[in-house]
Amino acid sequence: MHWVFLLIAGLFEVAWAIGLKLSYAFTHLGFSILTVLGMIASFYFLAIALKNIPLGTAYAVWTGIGIIGTVILGIVLFKEPYSLLRIVCILLIITGITGLKLIS
User: Fold this and answer.
1) What is the mean pLDDT of residues 24-52?
2) Residue 77 pLDDT > 80, yes or no?
């Protein structure tokens, strides 16, 4: 169950990162509020996950989910550039996350 909490924490990390961009440096109140709430939720679920998952593993997985999610959504929502090399790097992150999950 703690891995589910870690996944939720990672998804909230993606949400607040996207919200941060949409808040335009906290100048749009609605997105600013959602961003801060996303940050709080992300840290809350990370803290719960840390009760049973080693810190290094949890942090790496949490940030990995955030990286993968924000890169993909950046490409889809904001038309950020993508290339084969970026896709390969995302796959390497996924491989690392999978490896950490398997050895934990």
Assistant:
1) 97
2) yes
